[in-house]
Design brief:
The complex is a heterodimer.
Chain A (H helix, E strand, L loop, with lengths): L1 H39 L6 H21 L10 H29 L4 H23 L12 E3 L1 H8 L7 E2 H23 L1 H11 L1 H6 L4 H27 L3 H18 L4 H18 L4 H7 L18 H15 L11
Antiparallel strand pairs in A: 1-2
Helix pairs in contact in A: 1-6, 1-9, 1-10, 1-11, 1-12, 2-3, 2-4, 2-9, 2-10, 3-4, 3-9, 6-7, 6-9, 7-9, 10-11, 10-13, 11-13
Chain B lengths: L2 H20 L2 H28 L6 H16 L4 H31 L4 H31 L18 H20 L4 H21 L1 H4 L5 E2 L8 H6 L1 H9 L4 H33 L1 H11 L1 H6 L4 H27 L1 E2 L6 H15 L4 H29 L8 H9 L3 H16 L9
Antiparallel strand pairs in B: 1-2
Helix pairs in contact in B: 1-2, 1-16, 2-11, 2-14, 2-15, 2-16, 3-6, 3-7, 3-14, 4-5, 6-14, 11-12, 15-16, 15-18, 16-17, 16-18
Chain lengths: 337, 432
């Protein structure tokens, strides 16, 4: 019995908790992609770099706060910087919309033109972030590191396996719950949220009914800014910030949004967790877990790892390709490709 | 080619000459060589996007496969590694391929339903574990053979020029698989799928050390042209250098770079000639008809799916050739250097700026954008130096700005793309 419990603890500690945290970060990112796709009808390749931009602003504000001695005690100071990061990103996104996308929207250009111009925005943001903060890896999480430490857990419970939850992970889960709940409340209950869904469903009909499309687009960008920056800051608190990593996060985020069905917010959340759980469980070595579960005679000699951890990125894409092949509209029905 | 286009090309060459005069001829020739390779890559993407409207964001993967071809063709085989696990790896790969083919066959031949899923999962699962059973020990054995120097199977030891067509073929093969699976998708979805597949290709190249040495890099690939050191020893060279008023070392490096430039130009000329012929032929008209209106072309009895696959393979093969050429020029395969910004999106900037659908446009785009990509850095550094001249020497801000100048090129590329897209949506040399 104790072996079984130990096995469960191992699994929770090395698969469940990291996957839940990573999945929440992906879900927030994918929500941004999906909202922009739903309302503006293009895949925003600048998403990863927008995330990097928001995180960068938050880091700069955090550094300044730390230098004047203002911190949150055991919570990371970045939480005070986050609203400012969101505001700056919102200004940036509204700016790019005004300078780049609005022109094509008014001309009703092909979605491909939007996507290609988002590549242009991606280049600019990518360069900008590297110009300002540099391409190096940065850590900016301060305050307490752990909610539960592995050693303390062992001492209190008497199990031979440790179990730990760190602060960034728990903040990730709490903030994601708040963000998702308020997003859904906004979409279902408020007038603006309803007009957003109406516009996503049928643009012509919505405009005919007197919905101000430009206003809805602006609000979409602001919400996207909030979701993206939060996702970026949470990821950064958890694993550190590096511009190139953020650019690469574009891949699992797209995968999550498509797996769930592009344009479908609920799908984006589910997609985030599907991607994170598959990435982590396929590349996790189950040796220790099986050691507890299986009888002595069946103990595995190998790591029992389906794929090496280097293939994490490939896993999300293999899933993406499979979904695109067998169910292109995603698991929760999104827009048809 | 009308006078305006000729003038555009003349401007680019004048810029290259200017670099030769102001910086050095070696720099100018280095830029020229990469301009030629970039032009071929952008021709490849143009064949897909400009001829057929296929939104491929996976150029990087095919370029990298070309690089792998260079290693497989030209490096000497490592006999010990073949003895250690060559047969077993081959067997494993055959099992893997067999499993995939078998699964696809099962999927197609059985009735939909739970039974089909059960058989498919059983088959794929068995295949996977059999593959791993054969593959893992063989890979471990191969990678254990002198890991610091080899640790991989090596290549065939053939002349590296052969790698260029082979790179094209390898990329074409991969493109067939990718096209078969992904071409059913449209616009954004195709872009994301190809983008993902190209990343998967890079991850595989980075991690399968037994094939490509992974991030340990393969260095010292054989060259199709002379080595500088050998040139410097020849009498003719030593007599010519003073007559030209040059240092023998410099002259040898220029000679080598010029030889590459001639080889690359030959390839470019052949590919452009073929592309132009294709574009002007009935086939080219059909492609444009499909691009402009798929439904109408389909109704006229054209097989849209087959033509898309065909053009996707052709374009990717051109990228593969360019990739093999690039690795030949570098003399090494460094999987870590394949980044989407540089090998996928920059090529797209070239195609869009040059003018999609026009081969000359793609070449011009390749030249202009590569030239800027290289030259923005020194110009940016000079600019930063000027801007920060009033700041005290060694000030943190000044150091930061001067060091950051290298990233200016990304911003410049983005701005160029956005400006061209907005104000000259058809590019420098518009297509028909």
């Amino acid at each position: 019995m104790e072996d079984l419990l130990n096995a469960v603890i191992v699994l929770c500690n090395f698969v469940m908790i990291p996957a839940i945290a990573y999945g929440s970060q992906l879900a927030l990112g994918a929500l941004g992609v999906t909202l922009v796709y739903g309302v503006l009808r293009f895949s925003n390749f600048a998403h990863g770099d927008t995330m990097a931009f928001g995180t960068m602003i938050t880091i700069l504000v955090t550094r300044w706060l730390q230098s004047v001695g203002l911190t949150l005690g055991s919570l990371p100071t970045a939480l005070i910087g986050l609203p400012i990061g969101i505001a700056a990103t919102a200004v940036l996104l509204l700016g790019t919309d005004r300078v780049v996308y609005r022109f094509y929207r008014l001309r009703k250009s092909d979605p491909i033109i939007f996507t290609i111009s988002s590549v242009g925005v991606m280049f600019v943001l990518n360069g900008l972030v590297r110009l300002v903060i540099g391409p190096e890896h940065q850590r900016f999480s301060d305050g307490a590191r752990f909610v539960i430490r592995a050693r303390e857990f062992k001492e209190i419970t008497g199990f031979s396996e440790g179990f730990s939850i760190n602060v960034p992970q728990s903040i990730t889960v709490i903030l994601t719950l708040i963000a998702v709940a308020s997003l859904f409340w906004f979409m279902k209950q408020t007038r603006t949220g309803k007009s957003m869904r109406a516009l996503a469903d049928n643009e012509d009909l919505a405009t005919l009914c007197g919905i101000n499309a430009e206003r809805v687009v602006a609000i979409t960008w602001i919400i996207a800014a909030a979701l993206t920056t939060t996702a970026g800051v949470l990821y950064g608190l958890d694993k550190g910030f590096k511009p190139f990593t953020y650019f690469q996060l574009l891949l699992p985020i797209f995968a999550a949004a498509i797996v769930g069905g592009l344009g479908n917010p609920l799908g984006a959340i589910a997609g985030g967790f599907i991607i994170s759980f598959s990435e982590i469980s396929i590349t996790y070595a189950f040796k220790k877990f099986l050691g507890y579960v299986l009888p002595q005679s069946l103990q595995p000699e190998h790591l029992v790892q389906l794929l090496s951890t280097d293939y994490k990125l490939a896993v999300s894409f293999a899933i993406l390709v499979l979904v695109l092949l067998f169910k292109p509209t995603g698991i929760f029905r999104g827009r048809a490709p | 080619m009308n006078p305006k286009n000729l003038a555009l090309f003349a401007v680019v060459f004048a810029m290259l000459v200017l670099v030769g005069l102001l910086q050095s001829w070696t720099v100018a020739l280095t830029i020229l060589n990469l301009c030629l390779i970039s032009a071929i890559m952008s021709l490849g993407v143009n064949v897909q996007w400009g001829y057929a409207g296929l939104f491929n964001f996976g150029a990087m993967g095919f370029v990298a496969l070309g690089g792998v071809a260079a290693v497989i063709v030209s490096m000497p085989p490592v006999g010990e590694a073949w003895a250690a696990g060559g047969v077993r790896v081959t067997a494993a790969l055959l099992v893997g391929a067999g499993t995939i083919v078998g699964s696809i066959y099962t999927w197609k031949s059985l009735q939909p339903g739970r039974k089909r899923w059960m058989i498919l999962i059983g088959m794929a699962g068995t295949g996977f574990f059999l593959f791993r059973f054969l593959f893992d020990p063989a890979v471990a054995a191969i990678e254990n053979v002198n890991p610091a120097a080899t640790g991989y199977l090596g290549g065939l030891g053939l002349p590296i020029l052969l790698a260029w067509p082979v790179g094209g073929l390898l990329a074409a093969g991969a493109a067939w698989v990718v096209g078969k699976t992904a071409l059913g998708l449209r616009s954004d979805y195709l872009a994301i799928a190809t983008f993902g597949i190209s990343e998967i290709i890079i991850v595989v190249i980075k991690n399968e050390d037994w094939l490509t040495r992974g991030v340990k890099n393969v260095i010292g690939l054989p060259r199709p042209v002379a080595y500088e050191v050998d040139l410097q020893k020849t009498d003719a060279f030593l007599t010519w250098a003073p007559r030209l008023g040059m240092d023998p070392v410099e002259l040898s490096s220029i000679f080598v770079k010029l030889s590459y430039a001639i080889l690359f130009t030959l390839v470019l000329v052949v590919i452009v000639w073929l592309s132009q012929k294709a574009l002007a032929s009935p086939w080219g008209r059909m492609m444009r008809a499909i691009r402009d209106n798929e439904t109408a072309a389909g109704a006229m009895g054209k097989n849209v799916t087959a033509r898309h696959l065909q053009v996707f393979i052709l374009g990717s093969a051109i990228c593969g050739v360019a990739g093999a050429m690039l690795t030949t020029l570098d003399g090494q395969l460094t999987p870590g250097s394949y980044q989407p910004l540089r090998f996928t999106f920059l090529i797209w900037v070239m195609v869009i700026v040059g003018g999609s659908g026009n081969n000359w446009g793609s070449i011009l785009g390749g030249f202009v954008i590569w030239f800027l990509w290289v030259e923005v850095e020194p110009v940016g550094r000079w600019l930063m130096d000027t801007v920060t001249a009033d700041l005290p020497e060694g000030s943190a801000l000044r150091l930061h700005l001067v060091n950051a100048a290298a990233h200016m090129r990304l911003v410049v590329m983005g701005v160029i793309l956005l400006l061209v897209l907005r104000f000259f949506p058809r590019g420098l040399i518009p297509g028909k």
